[in-house]
Design goal:
By secondary structure, the protein is of the alpha/beta class. About 40% of the residues lie in helices and about 15% in strands. The protein binds pyridoxal-5'-phosphate.
């Protein structure tokens, strides 16, 4: 059955980010907790929470019930109509987001949250330029794709104008960090950001847009030295700070939001999606401070989406956040993250192919490297033979995650147990044993 299902998917639909002939999909017909099951009963361990969004795992009864209850009452009305789940979700977001982020504009995903955040920053400030980081990812529509500094943008260039990029953190391999401590390197990265702003003209810059915690470009996260400077720079030059928490939000890194690791940083605008409702229904949001929101009291918010504030999506968001609060998911995820990291560090000690483990909470990555630190698969290349072998071992053992360039993403649902982590470690151990043969 799996074979036929895969064949029909290939015959009638297109897959993202690949030449179609290279798409050999596994199938899924049901899912529960950290596992999902194929059409022939294959059992897969979901080690990337799908696209790092199913934070509460699959089949959460509370979220499903909230969607069912809402569907019985009201599924959809135009975004100009007021509804209960929309009000409640806005109120909960005000409570869980940091500092004085207080009002939300709902979107259908992450990418349109970014598009709208850029639009809002430009309307509010009257300025145009957006400063972003190389090796970041902000989405796949035209503006967000250009804003990202990930190679996925390259085939779609030139994209939109007035995006400026700067070099970000990479203590392991960036020349900016050579013979320096991570803190010293971070300070240089911040200096270069400030220099870029001066070269581009601060009075033309609407916002700096950064992932609160680095995601699919390899989890290259700068420390507090960098973040404190970003806050200073934004204040000094009157530039807005847009924080993208689409991947790192909702407990992923052991805090509600990635940026919560740096309490001095005060985002003006935050973009969220994915974990906002654990991916049960498409949903995103732009959350902004009262100051920015009140600008739109008298000025038109030139933006809208048919599915903005969708009642089912908002109801699933309310259920997710309430569930997270009632069950201390963020705190428990942080604890489990410590155990997870200890086990990953043990793999690093054991396997010479592991260059580094990076991340926080249940948001970790294994970086595979040669003895001299060179990545086991070069940046933005097809997988080299050792990485293909790694990928095959994981796949043959039904551990589902992304193997990208020289890295393995380790981002399971926040509800994973120690026993399930150990199940994954056994498989990773086998995969890394294969990689070790090439070092
Ligand atoms: C940090 C970040 N921003 C934006 C996006 C885009 O979100 P979406 O795929 O929901 O449009 C993603 C998706 O992975 C992401 O990781």
């Amino acid at each position: 059955m799996s074979e036929d299902l895969a064949r029909r998917n290939k015959e009638f639909t297109l897959a993202s980010w690949k030449a179609q002939n290279s798409w050999n999909p596994i199938t899924a017909v049901r899912a529960e907790g950290v596992y999902f099951y194929g059409a022939d009963g294959e059992k897969y361990l979901d080690f990337a929470s799908q696209l790092i969004n199913v934070n509460l795992g699959h089949g959460n009864k509370t979220i499903i019930k909230a969607i069912q209850d809402q569907a019985e009452k009201l599924t959809y009305v135009a975004p100009s109509v007021a509804t209960e789940p929309r009000a409640k979700l806005g109120e909960l977001l005000r409570e869980v987001t940091p500092h004085n982020l207080s009002k939300s504009f709902f979107t259908t995903a992450g990418t349109d949250a970014i598009e709208n955040a850029i639009k809002i920053a430009r309307l509010y400030s009257g300025k145009r330029k957006i400063v972003t980081r190389y090796r970041s990812y902000h989405g796949a529509t035209q503006g967000s794709m250009t804003a990202g500094g990930d190679p996925r943008r390259l085939a779609n260039e030139p994209g939109v104008n007035e995006i400026v990029r700067f070099h970000g953190a990479d203590p392991l391999r960036s020349p900016l960090y050579k013979d320096r401590s991570p803190e010293e390197g971070d300070a240089i990265v911040a200096d270069l950001l400030e220099q870029t702003i001066n070269y581009e003209g601060p009075k033309y810059i609407a916002a700096i847009l950064l992932e609160g915690y680095s995601g699919t470009s390899g989890i290259y996260q700068p420390g507090p030295t960098f973040w404190n400077r970003v806050q200073e720079i934004c204040e000094k030059y009157d530039i807005l700070l847009i924080i993208d928490e689409i991947m790192s939000g909702f407990g992923r890194t052991g805090k509600w939001f990635g940026i919560d690791h740096y309490p001095n940083v005060k985002p003006d605008i935050m973009c969220i999606a994915k974990g906002i409702n654990s991916g049960y229904i498409p949903l995103g949001a732009v959350v902004m401070t009262d100051k920015i929101a009140s600008y739109f009291d008298e000025n038109v918010l030139w933006g809208g989406l048919t599915y903005s504030s969708h009642a089912l999506a908002c109801a699933s968001g309310v259920a997710t956040i309430e569930y997270m609060k009632e069950n201390n998911i963020v705190e428990k995820g942080a604890e489990m993250g410590k155990f997870f990291r200890q086990e990953l560090d043990k793999l690093k000690k054991k396997h010479k192919s592991v260059g580094e483990i990076r991340g926080a909470g249940l948001h970790q990555i294994i970086d595979l490297a040669q003895a001299d630190g060179e990545p086991l698969s070069p940046y933005n290349s097809a997988l080299t033979e050792p990485m293909q072998k790694v990928s095959k071992v994981l796949m043959d053992n039904n551990l589902i995650t992304f193997v990208k360039w020289n890295t393995i993403y380790c981002c399971p649902p926040l509800i994973i147990t120690e026993e399930q982590i150990m199940e994954a470690m056994t498989i990773l151990d086998k995969a890394l044993t294969e990689a070790d043969k090439y070092i």
